[in-house]
Every structure is written in structure tokens, then in C-alpha cells.
Design brief:
Strand content: 5-15%
Number of domains: 1
Pfam families: MTHFR (PF02219)
Pathway: One-carbon metabolism; tetrahydrofolate interconversion
Bound molecules: flavin-adenine dinucleotide
CATH architecture: Alpha-Beta Barrel
Helix content: 40-55%
Cofactor: FAD
GO biological process, one term: tetrahydrofolate interconversion
Number of strands: 8
Strand order of the largest sheet: 1-2-3-4-5-6-7-8
Order of helices and strands: EHEHEHEHHEHEHEHHHEH
Protein name: Methylenetetrahydrofolate reductase
Structural class: alpha/beta
Oligomer: single chain
CATH class: Alpha Beta
Largest sheet: 8 strands, parallel, barrel
Radius of gyration: 20 Å
CATH topology: TIM Barrel
Length: 352
């Protein structure tokens, strides 16, 4: 690694430890997205990643949830283990499309009973093979409705239990929502429509937003400008992927409609040595991370694809890690075998 971050206290040798990190107010938030392992064989590797990411002391990790609750059990198992065995704060993605209001409420209560205090409230997309998709007759139709439902369930629980009221004061329910700097390709929505949707989510009680993957700081800044003019006040955190894998960048373009950075993809394609390709991609990602922060982002949310090397190398190069990454176990460049997201697979949320 080059350009090691400097010790904020100016020491030559900076031992790891919270006292050597910059003051909390000076640090951008740092968060990672994980998805539940798609096969049992992928689980040990995921946990290697979890431990490496934990050492970076993120503010939270978010865990994806398949549309229509498809990964309900695997998401729950991962979240439960994160809560019990790590120091990480977990935000659970929740989708509501194709599900009755009662079923969604049941899932919410189960997660709350497990100790979850943060959700990313999403509508979710209808299944790719559903030609004539219709809203569920007694369903929750938009993410804003889901935010309102979550707030109502929490209020009901607090109203019937003084103990719960105290807990809710100490650990308030935190609700994140999605935002789309280039409009939502999956629904055909424009950025202007999505900003209106974001406003509705804020009015329903959302606390902050995380964007679909951005590859340029301008895309992020454009969304924020339009959202602020429309009255959106909640923080908006840009979602970034490590720009190290040209194949993944091309696939994401197909799935999200977010254009892959063509010049970088061409450059990465032309490099044969995987280590050299990794280094070039890490440099590009670090530049993007610094760019979104310079554009005013309160923090960065990294779509990890359940890998740690690319995310942590890029954050370190951008000067965002302190020394926390020194202990992270190594990982070969490329995708984790057996856990590679495929087209049509809604699990990694970077595809939005
Ligand atoms: C950070 C992030 C994480 C994600 N995680 C997952 C995941 O774990 N699992 C998964 O299945 N999917 C996930 N997705 C994908 C997401 O569920 C889909 O892209 C879904 O289509 C959008 O959901 P939404 O929450 O923005 O819905 P909504 O805000 O309800 O929007 C849905 C559509 O309705 C329109 N709309 C809604 N309300 C209004 C309004 N008041 N005015 C105008 N237009 C409106 C919007 O423009 C949009 O076209 C994620 C996306 C992101 C960005």
C-alpha cells in the first residue's frame, strides 16, 4: 500500500486504537453492504470478509433482502449472527412488493424482537418474469408506505410497553431509504420522479438515504442539488462499488442503466496482470471516494459484493481508514467463487 494515512496526532508510529482516529465529527460515515450467502459453501468466506470489515470500524453494515422476501431466512440468519457475534450495527433491508401488509408487519416485528433497530425501507421490484404485475390487494405499495408502517409498528410497541419505551429512547428506530441519482431504471422512473418519491419517504419518517451505485461525483452532486431544491433535507449517502472488475462494471450497467465508466473499463480490460488491474481500479475508486466527499457527501456506503480487499484497499488509499486495515486478512483479486451475483439476481443492492 502507498500513501498510508497519517496519524491524526502527528506521531511517527501510530498504534491502532480509537484515540488515534480523527474526532468523530471530522470523520465521514463509513458503511458496507453485505448480502446473505447464496450457498452454505460461501459462508466461511463471507465471515472472513465480515471480520475484515469489522476491523475498519464502520458506522453500520446493511444486509440485503430479496424482493418478495425471497431471502427472508438467510437474511435473518446473517443479521442474527452479526448482532450476536460482532460489534457491528446492522441495518436490515426490507422489501414489501407482492406481500400483504400483515406479512410485512410480521417480518418487521420478528426483526425488532431480534434486536434490530435500523431498516432500509424499500418497495422492491416485481419478479423479472412477472409480465402483468399487479400490486398486492392488501399490500404496501411504496417505500414511503413502508416507512409509515415501520413508524406505526414501533409506536404501537412503545405504547404498550414502558420497557420498550425506554429502550426506544436509548436506541431509536432508524430508517434509511433508497435514492437514484440517474432515476430508477428498474421502474422506468426519472430522477425528478425519484426525487418526489424521496420527498414522500422523508415526509413518512425516513432518516437518511443511500443511493444506487454512482460512478461519478457529478451524478451524486446532481441528485443532491435537485433533492435539496425540492425540499429533501435528510442526509444522502452515495453508494460506491470498488472499480476493480471491468466485467462487473459492464454487468451493472445492464442491470442498473448506470453507464460504466468507459475509459476506465477499457483501461482495466487492457491490463493482463490481475494485481496491476486491482491497483489501477483501487486508484480510480479512491479518486471517486474523495470526489463524492468533496461534493459534500456525509459519508460513503460501499457495495462490497461480500468481498473485502477491494473496498478496504480503496478506502485506505482515499485516507479513510486510519490504521484499521492493517490486520485485515488477504484475499485474492476477483470474485468469490460460488457467491457471484448473476443477472436477474436482486440480492446485491448496488443493482438497485
Ligand atoms: C441502496 C439500495 C438498496 C437496495 N436493496 C435492495 C434489496 O435488498 N432487495 C431488493 O429486492 N431490492 C433492493 N434495492 C432495489 C429497490 O428495491 C428497487 O430499485 C425498487 O424498484 C425501488 O424501490 P424504492 O424503495 O425506491 O421504491 P419507491 O420509492 O416506492 O419507488 C418505486 C417507484 O414508484 C415511484 N414513486 C413512488 N412514490 C412516488 C411519489 N410520491 N411520487 C412520484 N413517484 C413515486 C418511484 O419514482 C419509483 O419509480 C435497493 C436499491 C438501493 C438504491
Amino acid at each position: 500500500m502507498t500513501d498510508r494515512p497519517r496519524c491524526p496526532r502527528g506521531a511517527d508510529v501510530c498504534p491502532p486504537g480509537p484515540e488515534h482516529l480523527p474526532a468523530v465529527t471530522e470523520r465521514p460515515t463509513l458503511s458496507f453492504e453485505l448480502f446473505p450467502p447464496r450457498t452454505p459453501a460461501a459462508e466461511p468466506r463471507l465471515w472472513q470478509t465480515v471480520r475484515a470489515l469489522e476491523a475498519a470500524r464502520p458506522d453500520f453494515v446493511s444486509v440485503t433482502y430479496g424482493a418478495s422476501g425471497r431471502t427472508r431466512e438467510t437474511t435473518r440468519a446473517l443479521v442474527r449472527r452479526l448482532l450476536r457475534e460482532t460489534s457491528l450495527t446492522a441495518i436490515v433491508h426490507l422489501t414489501c412488493v407482492g406481500t400483504s401488509r400483515e406479512e410485512v408487519s410480521q417480518v418487521v416485528r420478528e426483526f425488532l424482537d431480534e434486536g434490530v433497530r435500523a431498516f432500509l425501507a424499500l418497495r422492491g421490484d416485481p419478479p423479472a418474469d412477472a409480465e402483468d404485475w399487479q400490486p398486492h390487494p392488501d399490500g404496501v405499495d411504496t417505500a414511503a408506505d413502508l416507512v409509515a408502517l415501520l413508524r406505526r409498528i414501533e409506536a404501537e410497541r412503545v405504547a404498550v410497553s414502558p420497557a420498550q419505551a425506554v429502550r426506544a429512547t436509548v436506541r431509536p428506530l432508524s430508517l434509511a431509504v433508497a435514492a437514484f441519482p440517474r432515476g430508477n431504471h428498474a421502474t422506468g422512473g426519472t430522477r425528478a420522479q425519484d426525487v418526489q418519491s424521496l420527498l414522500a419517504k422523508q415526509e413518512a419518517g425516513a432518516d437518511f438515504a443511500i443511493t444506487q451505485v454512482v460512478h461519478t461525483a457529478d451524478d451524486f452532486a446532481g441528485l443532491v442539488e435537485e433533492a435539496r431544491s425540492a425540499g429533501v433535507r435528510i442526509p444522502i449517502i452515495p453508494g460506491v462499488i470498488p472499480l476493480t472488475d471491468p466485467g462487473r462494471l459492464r454487468r451493472l450497467e445492464q442491470l442498473t442503466g448506470v453507464p460504466a465508466p468507459a475509459a476506465l473499463v477499457g483501461r482495466l480490460d487492457a491490463i493482463e496482470d490481475p494485481e496491476h488491474r486491482h491497483e489501477v481500479g483501487v486508484d480510480a475508486t479512491a479518486e471517486l471516494l474523495r470526489g463524492v466527499l468533496d461534493a459534500g457527501a456525509p459519508g460513503v456506503h460501499v457495495y462490497t459484493f461480500n468481498q473485502h480487499r477491494g473496498p478496504l484497499d480503496a478506502l485506505e488509499r482515499a485516507g479513510l481508514l486510519g490504521h484499521a486495515h492493517d490486520d485485515a486478512p488477504d484475499e485474492a483479486p476477483g470474485e468469490a467463487p460460488g457467491d457471484t451475483p448473476a443477472a436477474g439476481d436482486r440480492v446485491p443492492a448496488a443493482v438497485g
